[in-house]
Automatic annotation (TrEMBL):
GO terms for cellular component: extracellular space. InterPro entries: Serpin_dom, Serpin_fam, Serpin_sf, Serpin_sf_1, Serpin_sf_2. Pfam families: Serpin. Residues 1-301 form the Serpin domain. Keywords: Protease inhibitor, Serine protease inhibitor. Belongs to the serpin family. Gene3D superfamilies: Alpha-1-antitrypsin, domain 1, Antithrombin, subunit I, domain 2. It comes from Pectinophora gossypiella. The keyword Transcription does not apply. This is Serpin domain-containing protein. GO terms for molecular function: serine-type endopeptidase inhibitor activity.
Length: 301
């Protein structure tokens, strides 16, 4: 979403631009001549230095009748490698197929249809961002130790069903954090910059943990894990895949202070088109899969 906003800022003007730069934390940087070069170098270095399998694809889809300015298309595609597509929104099936083809060319077949025909109904500008990464565990689970076992619901009493439970015993960063009333386990990947944190409530249920997370920060939890260090841990973790759709990005951005870009009467996107244009749709889907060998995650609209 941050990169989507940065791309959109290239075409925003006046109050719309001020809102975007305030929320992204880059107020004032746009005037610096080195800004675009610096951001482009950061993105390029990320792709070159990541040792795990990683791909990213981003598109801005505009109704072709709004005539996207060539300067906007050129700057955005050079800055963040976001593709700007001008499609016929009156032909939703054809346009959805074209958009999905571009996304698939950049990120592969990690998703099904990211853009749907109904997305083009009563729309003028759609923003789609998809990312995928996969990294092997530093300490993989042994397939032979995976057994079918019961998995319990939020209250820890009712059996929700049976799952393939992975097992291993080893040394891992582990800590009990009273502030959030939970145990936290860190599972590192082969790339030392990537790890997964597993939270297990000491009591109550998982929903209470969501609220308690407001009482601390990720850096605070990581510091506590570092202080406690590695200890022997007997791990039982289900093999799982979770798909979660975030359809309220518009509301979240509104709460953060970005309001103008979603309303035709107040938006100022004259850098994109000479016609009145507003952001019609911005959604995201995140998928995470955990297996004995690795962890993979993907996100898209």
């Amino acid at each position: 979403t941050w990169l989507q906003l940065i791309s959109l800022a290239e075409g925003a003007r006046l109050k719309s631009l001020k809102e975007i730069w305030k929320v992204t934390g880059l107020t004032g940087y746009r005037r610096k001549t080195c800004y675009r070069r610096t951001l482009r170098n950061i993105l390029n270095n990320m792709d070159e230095n990541l040792t795990f399998d990683s791909e990213r694809s981003s598109v801005i889809i505009v109704d072709k009748f709004y005539r996207v300015k060539k300067a906007f298309k050129r700057e955005v595609e050079a800055l963040s490698r976001t593709r700007v597509l001008s499609l016929n929104f009156n032909r939703p099936e054809e346009s959805a197929k074209a958009a999905n083809k571009v996304l698939e060319e950049q990120i592969g077949k990690h998703f099904e249809e990211l853009v749907l025909p109904e997305d083009f109904t009563d729309s003028r500008l759609l923003m789609t961002d998809a990312a995928y990464f996969k990294s092997a565990w530093r300490h993989p689970f042994n397939y032979a130790h995976t057994k079918l076992a019961e998995f319990y619901s939020n209250n820890g009493i009712e059996v929700a069903g049976k799952v393939n439970m992975m097992h291993q015993i080893g040394y891992f960063n582990y800590a009990e954090i009273p502030l959030i009333n939970a145990r936290v386990l860190e599972l590192p990947c082969t790339d030392e910059r990537i790890s997964m944190l597993i939270y297990l409530p000491l009591k109550d249920n998982i929903l209470d943990l969501f609220y308690l997370m407001q009482e601390t920060t990720l850096s605070g939890i990581l510091n506590q894990l570092k202080i406690e260090g590695e200890i022997p841990v007997n791990i039982s973790l289900p093999r799982f895949e979770i798909v979660s759709e975030m359809s309220n990005i518009r509301e979240l951005l509104y709460d953060m202070g970005i309001t103008k870009i979603f309303y035709p009467n107040s938006v100022q996107l004259r850098g994109i088109s000479d016609y009145s244009l507003d952001v019609s749709l911005m959604t995201q889907v995140v998928a995470i899969e955990v297996t004995e060998k690795d962890v993979s995650a993907s996100s898209g609209p």
